[in-house]
Amino acid sequence: MNPVFRLLLPLVPLLTLFSRATAQSVPPRSAPLIESVETVPAASQWLQPGDRLQVRLKGRPGSRVTFLNGQPLTELPATAKGVRGVYQGTYVVRPGDTLQDRTLQFQLVTSDSSRATAHTLSRIRFLNPNEPQLAVTRGALAYLNYGLGEDRLGGAKLGYLDSLVVLHVTGKVGDQYRVRLAEGQQAWVPLEVVRLLPRGGFVPTSLTSSWSVSGDSLYDYVQVPLDMRLPYRSQLLTEPTRLVVDIFGATSNTNWITQRDGLRELGDVHYEQIQPDVFRMVLNLKHEQSWGYSIGYRRNTLVVRVKRPPARLRLKGLTVAVDAGHGGDNHGAVGASGVKEKDLTLAIALKLRRELEEQGARVLMTRETDVSVDNGRRVLLLRKLNPDLLVSIHVNSSGSASVQGTSTYYRYVAFRPLSVALYEQMRQTGLKGFGNVGSFNFGLNGPTEFPNALVETAFVSNSEDEKRLADPAFQQQMAERITRGLADFLKGTRAKGPKGWLLGRPAEQ
Ligand SMILES: [Zn+2]
Is residue 175 part of a domain? Predict the structure, then answer.
């Protein structure tokens, strides 16, 4: 047992006595009968039959409390700290229930028949499933979330969607709509990336036509004609390297898949109807290292565009994007000496650009000066510039001054080799190793179009790391190591080559 805990044990009976005394004290008569009411979560909601509406009220203990039309709340036992008068209730929405975006009214009747009413701040609406609510995505950066979670990186993202994708909205909590993707599958979408459609539409579904796989001078393509733009999800997997795309609401009427000439990266392709309304495409890739892909619609045809490896797997002639984190009024982390992340990332990125250009690479920068560019704009810019690779440069920070070291991050497992190669080289600077981090929900790890990695060079919150970060000679060393990391990644990719037996062009030199 923890010695500190043991030391505290003799105090426990005393504390218990104290809390019991508190528990028995009754609030003074002047206290309002109802102190607070809220929905749980405390946000405006749209619910449909089968959903739970949860509420909480704090008020005079020992009362009778109801909401909606007489639905009772239950008083909880006193907490360990002796708090009483907390009531909770759940109502499962039933077919036929109606509630038009209203606040909820609560009634409290005390044991001596005093009465009080109160309303929630949040508004509740019950949806009518007989009038499906539809929405379409808008803008170039619409995306789905898995759930309602939030942290400094936002909610965990399920993936980006093209614009005008039709979604079936089945609920809302705060600033996100819940959408039904397929039987038993749902996701959440921020209000600002969709537009609600007028009533009277049908739940989005489509049969898939027969589809084709083809290649032009730049890319390989998969094209699946649908009746409307349905939502989708993709995963780039390894061992073997393959792209798995699920189309929600789609049912197969695919009676053939034409594989045209000119394919250089797509190998065997097939589909599975994994449930009645989820159509899964499995697209095998010819090379062990994927160089990315994009998914979007051309009219109502879903188009998967698959990138091929660069002509030569070496820095000379390669297009590398370098992203200096933060900038302008976005300072990022600030060290004890006052040094700002935005200045450090730019200094390292500019040195990295020089190194890469010396090796014959073409370098694209998301910023070259001290300007503010938000991450959404950076992603859009990179999509347009279409680099072969992306390295994002940041500086780490921790609440604990003793935490230090370098780390690299990737989101998709297929891009992990890049972040590992960068990590190995960054360790050669003498910085401690903080680790290689996967599934990282960071905007600049989001693009699927090209391999990308984030380098959190070192911790500006640690005095030893901070000194190094601010030292131009050490910045130069980091730039050289990142360059070598990129070269190592290319070398490793060259060694792997194409998957042996598959048809395709000969191995790179
Ligand atoms: Zn940062």
Answer: yes
Per-residue pLDDT of 292-306, as tens digits, reads 999 999 999 999 999
> Six-digit token pair at 194?
């969709």
Distance CA 443, CA 333 (A): 17
Q: Are residues 264 and 120 in the same domain?
A: no
| Residue 112 shares a structural domain with residue 145 | no
User: How many angstroms is it from 15 CA to the middle of ligand 1?
Assistant: 45
* 330 within some domain: yes
Half-sphere exposure of 264 (CA within 13 A, CB side): 18
Q: Pick the closest to residue 300 from 390, 240, 358, 227 (CA basis).
A: 227
The domain total for the chain is: 4
Q: Residue 14: what pLDDT?
A: 33
Residue range 310-334: average pLDDT?
97
Q: 465 alpha carbon to ligand 1 midpoint, in Å?
A: 15
Distance 449 CA to ligand 1 centre (A): 22
175 and 260 fall within a common domain:
no
3-state DSSP call for residue 109?
strand
Q: Could you tell me the distance, in angstroms and rounded to a whole number, from the CA of residue 405 to the centre of ligand 1?
A: 15
Q: What was the pLDDT predicted at 506? A: 43
Range of the domain at 42: 37-66+92-128
Choosing from 273, 306, 339, the residue where a domain stops is 306
User: Quick one: 248 and 175 in the same domain?
Assistant: no
Quote the ligand 1 centre to 16 CA distance (angstroms).
46
Average pLDDT over residues 49-61: 98
CA-CA-CA-CA dihedral for 199, 204, 209, 215, to nearest 10: 100
Q: Which of 460, 396, 455, 401 is nearest to 427 (CA)?
A: 455
**Distance in Å, CA 323 to ligand 1 centroid:** 11
The model's pTM: 0.89
Ligand 1 center from residue 477 Cα (angstroms): 20
The rounded Å distance from CA 456 to ligand 1 centre is 8
- The reply to whether 13 falls in a domain is no
What burial class does residue 467 get, using C-beta atoms within 10 Å of its C-beta: 0-12 exposed, 13-18 middle, 19+ buried? middle
Do 227 and 183 lie in a common domain? no
Give distance in angstroms: CA of 394 to centre of ligand 1.
5
- HSE-up (13 A, CA, CB side) for residue 356: 29
Characterize the bridge pairing of strands 34-39 and 157-161.
unpaired
Spatial CA neighbour of 166 closest among 206, 136, 125: 136
CA distance 474 to 504: 44
Q: How far is the CA of 342 from the centre of ligand 1 (A)?
A: 8
Residues 347 and 476 in one domain: yes
Q: Report the pLDDT value the prediction gives residue 154, as an integer from 0 to 100.
A: 84
Say which residue the tokens 């392709």 belong to.
269
CA of 399 to the centre of ligand 1 (A): 14
